[in-house]
Design brief:
membrane; 2 helices; about 45% strand; transmembrane; FN3_dom; repeat
């Protein structure tokens, strides 16, 4: 096929733009022929990835009658047609390779020829050494032998002759170049010898050892030791042998001082060596840089400053710019070391204000250096401040506070202590740990209606600090969560029932108990309970008397406690049956008069009963409306009784029962009386709710035991004295009895009587003939 196109022919050596009419003849399959129509790029030395077809093409050029034969490789995957020219198409020069003889010695001569074996003349020649144009000298000459050859002659080789020589031949079509290496064996020669060096410590310096020679010389450094021998120097953190042979010192110090020897050899001729002395002038240097030291408050703190340098070397201390001297709590000591001085500053029994910046200064004739040590006095944190209660519920509350001074040590945690504020009860301390990142806590699992004492403590790595001032927290109340305990029901007659019980366990009050509801109804009746309100008192024991009941009837009785929120669960139902016998009507009781410490009780005999029906009376009384009842027996002939030894300004409850041979009457109405005067001061109670230490068991028991022991000793001593006296008196009585004494002894016929009863009987100390604390039927005391 024939096609006239402009195209480039390219190989690895040159690029030529053809502008001639070409005829291309290719023997290819028909389906591939279309791929080569158009501009053809002929490239040489292309990488072959995948060869699908190989065929030949012939290119004819009429202008110069040249014929080019090429091999075409087709790559289906890239749709790229590339060619590799197998015959030269231009007259670019081609140089025949050349070489120098093997290693030469200094003083020998050598030459090489640069011959162009292909290309169109004329040619021009240029010689290079190590990339630089080579010029003729006394020992180097360049000659053109003919149109195709250039000759390089070195008449006397030396160390400077070593290098890479290149010949470049060029014509109008292009150029070619070839290179050869010339090696001349040269013994080591000094370029720069090592010299004695004196320098300041801390600098970066080097000892020179620059040489030349071929092959490249090897440099070895040695240092003379104390016994006169030499030690090879190797690279380490303090020094390094550089590529040019010099020995580099990094931050040189006094220990690097000495004599160093550089030895150079390369196997040609004798090795060369040179020694140099290195002197190091040591200005002051402190081994440790700025640092922080911690010490606990009240303990000793020691600051150490290790100074190095040439003597004489002096040190001093200062705090915040003010010089320090040895005093009572501050001690300064120095001691010599192998390299300088070790200075110590000791502070005994540190205080908080001992913290600060301490400066250690070291000075000699070469300079002065300072080093700062920050002393931090650490201690437990101070007590948290601004402790306050947030929201309060019946079983939880929030507490917050402000961080205190941390004692120069980060706070690691807070500890919240809290316990119930119950008078007379031991503290059951509870703890809640709070992370240092928090300054508030939610206290849960609290008891309703309960007052707690609470305090907060901060802790760091040194220890726990002081606790905050205790403060009170009271939770909201809930209704009692448990019924009264130990409920008993006893029929006291055909129309009355006595009910006694104990308060629910303290932890189930859920607040302050205001009282109790005592309910009763006929057993198995559908009617609701009829409740009676009984106010709560100080005692945990309580009682109530149900009256106006029906004779011989079974009743169900329950008791439940209540507070300001509501009432708690009822106690178990108890059954009681009133008596089926008619009860005696009780006397009508009334209070006739009162004083500061006494009250006169009088009663009237029931009009519908015989005068002698009652055998005796029983008077019951108690202070207030709670607690146990006190009872006093009164003879039937008396219709009044005086209660004595009462407390002034105090309320008392009293009632009366009458006894007959058939039983006991119903109780009289319960009366409340108030003695005259002011009430006595209450017992000492800790304002904070805590029992005073002198009322606590751990104080009372040892004191009481000591008193008992003392009393026992006194009693025993008194008994022994009395026994001795009695023994003496008995001996004397025995003598008089035998003399003339007689005695009247009681006999079986002795009579017993009781003196006349008084009209007023004292409750505090009644005569044994008039009032009894023993059963009425005991006989009277015999008459002497």
């Amino acid at each position: 096929m024939e096609r006239v196109r402009h195209f480039d022919a390219i190989n690895g050596l040159n690029r030529q733009l053809f502008k001639h009419r070409l005829f291309i003849l290719c023997i290819v399959p028909t389906f591939i022929a279309k791929l080569i129509w158009g501009t053809i790029f002929i490239t040489g030395m292309l990488p072959i990835i995948l060869k699908i077809y190989t065929f030949y093409c012939f290119i004819f050029c009429k202008e110069n009658s040249s014929v080019l034969k090429m091999t075409l490789n087709l790559f289906i995957t890239l749709l790229l047609l590339s060619t590799k020219i197998s015959a030269s198409d231009v007259g670019v020069p081609k140089i025949s390779p050349f070489h120098f003889p093997g290693e030469l010695d200094v003083g020998m001569r050598t030459s090489v020829l640069c011959a162009v074996i292909y290309g169109d003349p004329p040619f021009s020649f240029v010689w290079y050494k190590d990339g630089q144009i080579l010029s003729e000298t006394r020992s180097v000459s360049i000659k053109i032998i003919d149109d195709f050859t250039s000759n390089l002659v070195i008449s006397k080789v030396d160390a400077e002759s070593n290098g890479n020589y290149t010949c470049k031949a060029s014509n109008s079509k292009g150029f070619d170049e070839k290179s050869a290496l010339l090696s001349v064996k040269v013994s080591p020669q000094w370029v720069q010898e090592p010299k004695d060096l004196s320098t300041m410590g801390g600098q970066t310096v080097s000892l020179d050892c620059l040489t030349r020679g071929y092959p490249k010389p090897t440099v070895v450094w040695r240092k003379k030791n104390e016994d006169g021998g030499e030690v090879m120097v190797t690279d380490n953190s303090r020094w390094k042998i550089m590529e040019n042979g010099s020995l580099l010192f990094k931050r040189i110090d006094k220990g690097d001082e000495g004599v160093f020897t550089c030895e150079v050899s390369n196997g040609v001729g004798e090795a060369i060596r040179k020694s140099a002395r290195l002197d190091v002038k040591a200005p002051p240097r402190i081994s440790s840089a700025y640092r922080i030291k911690s010490a606990r408050k009240a303990e000793s703190a020691t600051l150490v400053c290790e100074a190095e340098g040439d003597q004489p070397l002096m040190t001093s201390w200062a705090k915040n710019g003010i010089g320090l001297q040895t005093t009572g709590r501050v001690q300064i000591n120095e001691e010599l070391s192998a390299t300088g001085i070790i200075a110590q500053l000791t502070i005994l029994s540190t205080h908080r204000n001992d913290g600060g910046s301490y400066t250690c200064s070291a000075k000699n004739r070469f300079g002065e250096v300072n080093n700062t040590i920050v002393l931090r006095i650490v201690e437990p944190p101070e007590r948290p401040v601004s402790v306050k209660v947030g929201e309060v519920w019946s079983r939880a509350a929030t507490v917050s506070w402000s961080p205190p001074f941390d004692g120069n040590s980060p706070i690691t945690q807070y500890i919240v202590h809290y316990w119930k504020d119950i008078e007379g009860a031991s503290h059951r301390l509870q703890e809640r740990n709070v992370p240092a990142t928090q300054t508030s806590v939610l206290l849960s699992d609290l008891q309703p209606g309960t007052t707690y004492l609470l305090r907060v403590v901060a802790e760091n790595d040194v220890g726990r600090g002081e606790s905050s001032e205790p403060f009170k927290l009271r939770t909201e109340e809930e209704a009692p969560s448990a019924p009264p305990t130990d409920v008993t029901v006893i029929a006291t007659g055909p129309t009355s029932v006595s009910v006694t019980w104990k308060a629910p366990p303290r932890e189930h009050w859920n607040g302050r108990l205001l009282g109790y509801y005592v309910g009763h109804k006929r057993h198995q009746s559908m009617e609701p309970y009829a409740f009676h309100t009984v106010p709560a008192g100080r005692s945990t024991h309580a009682d109530y008397r149900l009256t106006r009941l029906q004779k011989a009837t079974r009743y169900s009785v329950v008791v439940k406690a209540f507070n300001s929120v509501g009432s708690g669960p009822e106690s178990h139902e108890l059954l009681v049956e009133t008596s089926d016998k008619d009860s005696l009507k009780p006397p009508h009781l009334y209070v006739s008069e009162t004083s500061d410490t006494a009250a006169l009780l009088e009663w009237e005999h029931p009009r519908d009963l015989p005068e002698n029906v009652f055998t005796h009376y029983m008077v019951y009384y108690r202070p207030g409306s709670e607690g146990s009842w006190h009872s006093v027996h009164v003879p039937s002939k008396d219709k009044r009784f005086k209660l004595t030894s009462l407390e002034s300004g105090t309320k008392y409850q009293v009632y009366l029962t009458a006894y007959s041979e058939s039983g006991v009457s119903d109780p009289s109405d319960t009366l409340t009386l108030l003695t005259e005067g002011k009430a006595m001061a209450p017992s000492i109670v800790s304002v904070s709710g805590d029992t005073p230490y002198f009322l606590k068991l751990h104080f009372i028991i040892p004191v009481a035991a000591s008193i008992v022991i003392i009393v026992i000793v006194i009693v025993v001593a008194w008994v022994w004295v009395k026994k001795a006296q009695f023994r003496d008196e008995r001996e004397a009585a025995r003598v008089s009895l035998y003399a003339e004494a007689y005695y009247t002894l009681p006999h079986k016929g002795a009579t017993y009587f009781a003196p006349p009863a008084q009209q007023i009987v004292a409750a505090g100390g009644p005569n044994q003939d008039d009032a009894y604390d023993v059963p009425w039927d005991l006989p009277a005391r015999p008459k002497m």
